[in-house]
Known about the structure:
Strand content of chain B: 25-35%
Distance between the termini of chain B: 24 Å
Oligomer: heterodimer
Strand order of the largest sheet of chain B: 6-7-8-4-9-10
Mean pLDDT of chain A: 87
Shape of chain A: globular
Number of domains of chain A: 1
Mean pLDDT of chain B: 81
Largest sheet of chain A: none
Radius of gyration of chain B: 24 Å
Shape of chain B: elongated
Distance between the termini of chain A: 25 Å
Low-confidence stretches of chain B: 1-8, 11-27, 325-330
CATH class of the largest domain in chain B: Alpha Beta
CATH architecture of the largest domain in chain B: 3-Layer(aba) Sandwich
Number of domains of chain B: 2
Number of strands of chain A: 0
Strand content of chain A: under 5%
Order of helices and strands of chain A: HHHHHHHHHHHH
Helix content of chain B: 25-40%
CATH topology of the largest domain in chain B: Rossmann fold
Number of helices of chain A: 12
CATH superfamily of the largest domain in chain B: P-loop containing nucleotide triphosphate hydrolases
Helix content of chain A: over 70%
Largest interface: A-B, 28 and 31 residues
Radius of gyration of chain A: 19 Å
Number of strands of chain B: 14
Number of helices of chain B: 12
Amino acid sequence: MTRSVTAELLILRKRAATWILLGIWTFLGIFFAYVIPYALDPEDSPGGVGRFLPESFVGNVLAGFPFFGGVFALMLGVFALGSEYGWDTLKALFTQRSGRLQVFAAKLAALGIVLIPFVLAIFIAGAVASYVIAQIEDAPANWPSAWMLVRAIAGGWLILAVWAALGVLLGVVSRGTSLAIGVGILYALVIEGLLSAFADGVGVLEPLTNVFLRANGYSLATALGASTYTIGSSGPGSYNGPFVASGQALAVLMALIVGFVAFTALKLRRRDVA
Amino acid sequence: MSAAPNTIFSGRSDLDGAVARAQHDSPSDGEYVVQTRGLTKRYDDAIVAVDDLDLRVRRGEVYGFLGPNGAGKTTTLRMLLGLVRPTSGHAEVLGAPPGAPRGLARIGAMVEASAFYPHLSGRDNLRVLARYAGVPERRIDAVLEQVKLNARADDRSARYSLGMKQRLGVAAALLKDPELLILDEPTNGLDPAGMAEMREFIRSLADAGRTVMLSSHLMGEVEHVSDRVGVISAGSLIAEGTLDELRGRAGLRIRAEPLAQAARVVGELSGVEAVSSADGVLEITVDTLQAPTINRALVEAGIAVSELHAHTASLEDVFLELTTNGDDVS
């Protein structure tokens, strides 16, 4: 199994798309979390310039994970499996010694590992950006505790992992990348948003919103320090609630991963490889 | 193919391991490495891709799986590899169900067009497969050497010509040092010299004890390398046997005047099994050693014999006779 995972890491590591996604996500993440908000009007926002300082950087960075970061993770997940159909390489993997589920497990493990630099890169960039702002503002650089940082990194990874798992599912179901990415972004941008909006007036939809990816992702992010103001004013994908309890958010996100992975495994195991 | 060396394949450089286990004994039940019974694949209950297929591939032979495009060859091979589930029927490959890891570990396969990660080099593509197959990475250089792709091994596979991809596909199939090689249209994309060398290479694999199941729509390819041939058409196996069995017994062809009288004279001779005429030529099913006797009888009957020669049907003749859709055949 270890060698299978290293094989998958080789595929991902040498793929330009992996690095391009990592670079764009890190750059734009910092751009929208620090550069633009700080340059525009830091004094008028709740928390003022304080939300850009090191003591708040964890929450500030994490606010970008449930939607913006999620879309990048979704694409990474789609590429991990969907591209195999485009390249016609799945049959080569399935005819080696490993069984189909072992191939799938190796791909998931490698994807989970590759998500770690995605999380760490944005946290490091956020820390640097907040430190620079602290220097500019001549403000103290009070850093969050290590425990807080570890929890935030784990939470961020979990949020990205759910989106990546959704991407894997869509890539396998659509047997490709284009449709999967399109549907994934459509879901993220439109479907959850519209249904959440309708849920205010249609009671039967309300329980549904509690299991939405963004609702639970943002709820976890706020529990780990992200401000609701930042989340609600971050442009496309911004979210204004409802929020659920952190425990529920954690449970729902984990259940979504299990559900996405189980469904994909079933499809992958049973379906013919044409 | 810009860096193609004079010879494309070197067949015997690394034939150990599994090959040593292979035997050339006459076939018994245990000597069949591939067996199917009633193997059937239907799509949407309407399209029958493979219909009630019974075939057996013996250990150490090259089995040519011949059929027109769309006959069901690739679907059959995919079922044997566990990529496609049969609708009904049974298959066993190296004593294991199709797709079982214990069977796959001893099979090398190249199914349809060779497919690789375009952003990885040829070597890295093999590295990925070697890791999945649990094969030591030192095998990579060995198989690259066998297919003579070392010089371009570190180039991205996206930059390979079709012929180079085919060679990389063969290298991938050889990685596990397999007992059974399943090759689907292995000469696609190769130039005539490359095709000839590929045929020689395949033959050398079998001569060294490997079993090769070779699917092709090219009769020359099958005819030159196969020990036995199965002919599939519209999903059904319509003939199976050695080349000699498929071609049938040799006979004589005679051009003579008058033809009708010649036919009557020949038909009265002992040992002649059948006489037919077409396009002014008599086709006689008979032991070809009787040619002098037949010639003498015709001359003594006052018949002018302008041509008499032994004739064996080519595989192409047999194939076209067996399949109705001859247009698809190259």
